[in-house]
Amino acid sequence: MSKTNKLFQVKLNSFALKLLVVTIIGILPFLASAANKPPKVNAGLDKVVVYPSSTSATLSGSGSDAEGSVTFLWKQTSGVSTAKIASPTAAVTKISNLIPGIYTFSLTVKDNSGVSRSDIVNVSVFQKLTWSIKGIAREALVHPPSGGTSTAAPVIFVFHGHGGSDSAFAAKQFELNWPQAIVVYPQGLRTQTIVPPITCLKSGWQSKLGEINCANGIKDQDLTFFDSIYNTLNKKYNVNTQQVFVHGWSTGCDFVYNVLWAARGDKFAALGPAGGNLDTTKGKLPRPVIHVAGTQDTQWPFTEQQHDVEEIRKLDQCSATGTVWATGSGGLLGTKYASSINDPVVFLKYDGGHIYPSTIPALIVKFFKEVAGAAITKTTTAPLITEAPTPANKNLFAKQSP
């Protein structure tokens, strides 16, 4: 090889080496970025706050990154602007200055490379209302409608089961699925159990008209309580009296079926009983109904609940065969029966015993909305659902209090 060729080859190799170095330096950040795993973030469980006894809550978030440290940033993304975040750059912070309504807060976790991930947490702040009925103190937690009083708002009454409470059942978060509605979680008093062993120790609801309470001797105490709540709501809020709905679980279901439907059926646009029994349809007004039942329920056998729904379908003049209305995990299947008098019935079953599935509130609200929409548009059928609706809150499928 000539001297000239050797010199050219040296220069060529030098150029190639420089090009290689430049290339490597240029792609290193991209390689590092591709290898970097995004941080983990958890904004914590949704919160329930009872106003006015409490106007604050603690947000307990967390975050981490496999490659190093992370930073935190809390922001309010929706709700009344009165809320104050004490430590927005800490994983755990207190929020204060809360008033009744729904608040959503976002937690963003960022790693050393600037990669971030976010999660949200909802805070429901309820107004606690109280009454004195025949000398007995009563209370209910109320979610005010997000639209204010300019528009008439629908109402959902939600009655807990035996041994439950208004604050615990408020964790079902019906208001997240219909923020524009007034949602009421009443508190029951000590009542007699319906199934053995017969006791009078835990909170619940009367199960039949004319019932005399086992603890205080008051007749129809819960029917009178309902009337008081209903009258207060009409004075305090702009209520759409044509869109009043009611849901009850277990003994709350019996109260809805056997007391409220029998004595105040004209007040309701639709019923949503779950995990309980109907005594009779005799004397009851036809109404749209969604009934929820567990196929392994031993407290209220599934076959008995099936029979109840069959009787309701007769009252509501429903078709003999239904269509699939909702499906989901855990054997969730909703069958809808069209009604010739516009009072459809949905039978929603799931694989399980006498438990309250966290997927239920969204579906009950979905049915109530369909009934409300049908009343407005004067249609006789509502659109079908092929899947369970996406929950409005991220903790809807988490374990919640009964």
Protein traits:
402 residues; alpha/beta; Immunoglobulin-like; 3-stranded antiparallel β-sheet; disordered C terminus
List the helices and strands and how they pair.
Elements: H1 3-35, E1 40-42, E2 47-51, E3 57-60, E4 62-64, E5 70-78, E6 84-85, E7 92-96, E8 101-111, E9 116-133, E10 136-143, E11 153-159, H2 166-169, H3 174-177, E12 182-186, E13 189-191, E14 202-204, H4 221-236, E15 239-249, H5 251-264, E16 270-274, E17 289-294, H6 302-315, E18 323-328, E19 332-337, E20 345-350, H7 360-377
Parallel strand pairs: 2-9, 11-12, 11-15, 15-16, 16-17, 17-20
Antiparallel strand pairs: 1-4, 3-7, 5-8, 6-7, 8-9, 9-10, 10-12, 13-14, 18-19, 19-20
Which CATH first-tier class of the largest domain would you pick?
Alpha Beta
| Main beta sheet strand tally, sense and closure | 13 strands, mixed
Enumerate how many helices there are, as a single number. Answer: 7
- H/E order of the elements? HEEEEEEEEEEEHHEEEHEHEEHEEEH
